[in-house]
Amino acid sequence: MKQFLTLLLLFTFHSSLFTSAKPTSLTAQQADEALTRIVAQWKSEQAPRLRLNEKDHTIRQGDISMRYWYHGFGKEPVDGRSLYISMHGGGGAPKAVNDQQWQNQKELYQPKEGVYLAPRAPWDAWNMWFQEPIDSMFEELIQTMVVLYNVNPNKVYIMGYSAGGDGVWRLAPRMADHWAAASMMAGHPGDVSLLNVRNLPFTIWCGALDAAYNRNKEVAGRGRELDSLQKADPTGYIHECHIVANKEHWMDLVDAAAVPWMAGYRRNPYPKYVVWQQEEVLRPTFYWLKVPRNEMKRGRKIVASIEGNVITLQQCDYPQVTLYLNDQLVNLDKPVKVMYKGRTIFSKKLQRTEDNIRSSLAERGDPSYAFPAQLTVNL
């Protein structure tokens, strides 16, 4: 009998391991406290891995590596340091040419405050700054600076000259949810769409005499495109376009004015109006939106807005979308309604949980994108 009771107790204990307890719902204050604790724990856990990058200032993804150099300027503010990622020129040229361009980029700009960081492109190719896996390499680079050097993830800026400017044209839109502001210097836009920079301040610089590949005309045309986007959507598409008179490809550092311009902005990770179109490198998340990886395709688009506690999917080219939510986006003490094509597809109160905070932080690797609530809707 005693042996039977022992076996019964053991069975009960082990079976409880496979029973998922209902997540504990948190109040808004509890969620904030949990977020602070979980982010601190996450930073502590990530630090040993990220210190490996710092040993030789190199980010590695498989057999691709990206070296980087940085220098700090000014006194560290109370809210953390700024980070300026500055991409060099060059492109489809011998390694020595791109190495020289990297050395030049290191000395090109000097912010009043922040970490000025110049990475060396992983490839010696025309598309040296915007092929895979550059997106995830930049994400790890940002994490390294956030965790080890107290960079504020809402004060990360992207900039680049010539081929580096080509990179800004691509990385600014498709990673718009990562940047506080962007500056493109003397790069060619190619076929990039600018729809995604709706919530990203974007400044453009090009010499009026920079006629190679019709660069001056193409850049001026993109300036007019941003003018039109902002005219149709006056609360978005903050931008400046500078076609610098009497300057060719080299603008004699007139474009250095972009650095203090960018410094005037902070990333808003929770915009209440989002336009997201997939580009040539596909991404599963953007601000507070997530789509299934197997449904990602270039050109697919979502337009989503929040007013009060009503989330409206004005356009969605996916059969399913996940909404990451917090109390800066909606009031989680009240029911959340989701509208699509004029009908209500969800209306219910959501729970704040630690599991949601942990899972979204692990997925996004960005403290600003650790969300206490999430909802997946099928369209």
Please provide a written account of the structure.
By secondary structure, this protein is of the alpha/beta class. The protein has 2 domains: 57-263, Alpha/Beta hydrolase fold, catalytic domain (Rossmann fold); 273-378, no CATH class. Helix content is 32%, strand content 27%. It has 8 helices and 17 strands. An 8-stranded mixed sheet has the order 1-2-4-3-5-6-7-8, sandwiched between helices. Strand 3 (81-87), helix 3 and strand 4 form a beta-alpha-beta unit. Helix 2 crosses helix 4. The N and C termini lie far apart (57 Å).
Shape annotation: globular
Query: Mean pLDDT, nearest integer?
Result: 94
Q: How many structural domains?
A: 2
**CATH homologous superfamily label of the largest domain:** Alpha/Beta hydrolase fold, catalytic domain
Please name the CATH architecture of the largest domain.
3-Layer(aba) Sandwich
Distance between the termini: 57 Å
Helicity level: 25-40%
Ranges with pLDDT <50 over ≥5 residues?
1-20
| Tally of alpha and pi helices | 8
Q: Order of strands across the widest beta sheet?
A: 1-2-4-3-5-6-7-8
Order of helices and strands: HHEEEHEHEHEEHEHEEEEEEEEHE
Topology, number of strands:
17
CATH class of the largest domain: Alpha Beta
CATH topology of the largest domain: Rossmann fold
Indicate the structural class. Answer: alpha/beta
Largest sheet data: 8 strands, mixed
If you compute it from the alpha carbons, what radius of gyration comes out, rounded to the nearest whole angstrom?
23 Å
SSE map:
Blueprint lengths: L1 H16 L10 H29 L1 E4 L2 E10 L7 E7 L7 H12 L7 E6 L14 H16 L1 E11 L1 H12 L6 E5 L16 E6 L7 H18 L6 E6 L13 H6 L9 E5 L7 E2 L2 E2 L10 E7 L2 E7 L3 E6 L10 E5 L2 E6 L5 H11 L8 E6 L1
Parallel strand pairs: 3-4, 3-5, 5-6, 6-7, 7-8, 13-15
Antiparallel strand pairs: 1-2, 2-4, 9-12, 10-11, 11-14, 12-13, 14-17, 15-16
